[in-house]
């Protein structure tokens, strides 16, 4: 599945706020090494260098297009980017801060990765991640319902995951505590006020709708989007000040005991 850095950069302000709400809870002072897993186009990874100018900071992403966009921007010497799969990544020995913002939901079984990282991290190291908690929101329910309909079932069977995409905050908290961390887990529902026509469709095109678009021929994808946009307009009606799009997110920040 291909990622499009320019598409993802739309709504940058709304998409970046959870990153700062997440990393604001990391109390590390002088980390030696910081890694951002699923770093996307890298602008938020660069903010980690602003926060810890003496750390070596690495962004890792499986999308070559994202890493090309990240590497093209001018950057300080202590910031680098690499193409890689989170599932195959292991923490370097001097890692003091591990961040992953809005990426682990793409990895089935990432809970096992969290346990593996926990045993590899040294005492005092920080692990902070954020995942969307909106798989039961109308935007996802409508997408799955349409994908399962008689028109689309044969083309889209198995393309959209749901139940196992993310855990609930209490489950992450239990996992982290059992894995040897002091941990903080919480959730926030942001009320984004989006502008323009079909803004919720525009939003999901950059993320949740990508597996559907990747599975269909261009003409089919347009047909799917037309039908889906119609349903979204009813679920998220435009108001006098824009379209309100509630977005629940789950956060965990933990420190190895
Ligand atoms: C929603 S974007 C988040 C980007 C960035 N962290 C941010 O907050 O803006 C998800 C990113 O995760 C990356 N990703 C998804 N699965 C991955 C995997 N298995 N290994 C590495 N990166 C992955 C995608 O390429 C994409 O750039």
Query: So what's the overall shape?
Result: globular
Q: What profile does the largest beta sheet have? A: 8 strands, mixed
Number of domains: 1
Order of helices and strands: HHEHEHEEHEHHHEHHHEE
Short description:
This protein is an alpha/beta fold and 257 residues long. 40% of the residues lie in helices and 24% in strands.
Topology summary:
Layout (H helix, E strand, L loop, with lengths): L4 H5 L2 H12 L9 E5 L5 H9 L4 E6 L2 H9 L6 E5 L11 E7 L8 H11 L5 E7 L5 H11 L4 H4 L12 H10 L2 E14 L4 H7 L4 H6 L2 H18 L2 E2 L2 E15 L1
Parallel strand pairs: 1-2, 1-4, 2-3, 4-5
Antiparallel strand pairs: 5-8, 6-8, 7-8
Helix pairs in contact: 6-11
The structure holds S-adenosylmethionine.
Pfam families: Methyltransf_25 (PF13649)
Protein name: Trans-aconitate 2-methyltransferase
GO molecular function: trans-aconitate 2-methyltransferase activity
How does this model look, in words?
This protein has 257 residues and is of the alpha/beta class. The chain has one domain (5-256): 3-Layer(aba) Sandwich (Rossmann fold). It contains eleven helices and eight strands. Strands 1, 2, 3, 4, 5, 6, 7 and 8 form an eight-stranded mixed β-sheet that branches. The mean pLDDT is 94. Residues 3, 15, 19, 38-40, 44, 61-63, 66, 85-87, 101-103, 106-107, 207 line the site of S-adenosylmethionine (SAM). Its main location: cytoplasm. One of its GO terms (cellular component) is cytoplasm. One of its GO terms (molecular function) is trans-aconitate 2-methyltransferase activity. It is found in: Cytoplasm. Residues 34-122 form the Methyltransferase domain.
């Amino acid at each position: 599945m291909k990622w499009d850095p320019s598409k993802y950069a739309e709504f940058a302000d709304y998409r970046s706020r959870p990153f700062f709400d997440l990393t604001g809870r990391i109390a590390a002072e002088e980390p030696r090494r910081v890694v951002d897993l699923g770093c996307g186009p890298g602008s938020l990874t660069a903010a980690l260098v602003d926060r810890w100018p003496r750390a070596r900071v690495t962004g890792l992403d499986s999308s070559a297009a994202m890493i090309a966009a990240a590497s093209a921007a001018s950057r300080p010497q202590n910031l680098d980017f690499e193409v890689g799969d989170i599932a195959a990544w292991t923490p370097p020995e001097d890692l003091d801060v591990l961040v992953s913002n809005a990426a682990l939901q793409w990895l089935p079984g990432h809970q096992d990765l969290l346990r593996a990282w926990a045993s590899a991290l040294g005492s005092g190291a920080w692990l902070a991640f954020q995942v969307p908690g909106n798989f039961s929101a109308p935007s996802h329910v409508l997408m799955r319902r349409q994908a399962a309909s008689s028109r689309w079932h044969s083309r889209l069977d198995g393309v959209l995951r749901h139940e196992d995409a993310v855990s609930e905050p209490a489950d992450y908290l239990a996992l982290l505590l059992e894995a040897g961390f002091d941990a903080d887990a919480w959730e926030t529902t942001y009320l984004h006020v989006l502008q323009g026509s079909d803004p919720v469709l525009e939003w999901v095109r950059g993320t949740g709708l990508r597996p559907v678009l990747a599975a269909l021929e261009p003409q089919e994808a347009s047909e799917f989007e037309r039908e889906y946009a119609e349903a979204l307009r009813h679920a998220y009606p435009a108001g006098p000040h824009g379209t309100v799009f509630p977005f629940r997110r789950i956060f965990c920040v933990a420190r190895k005991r």
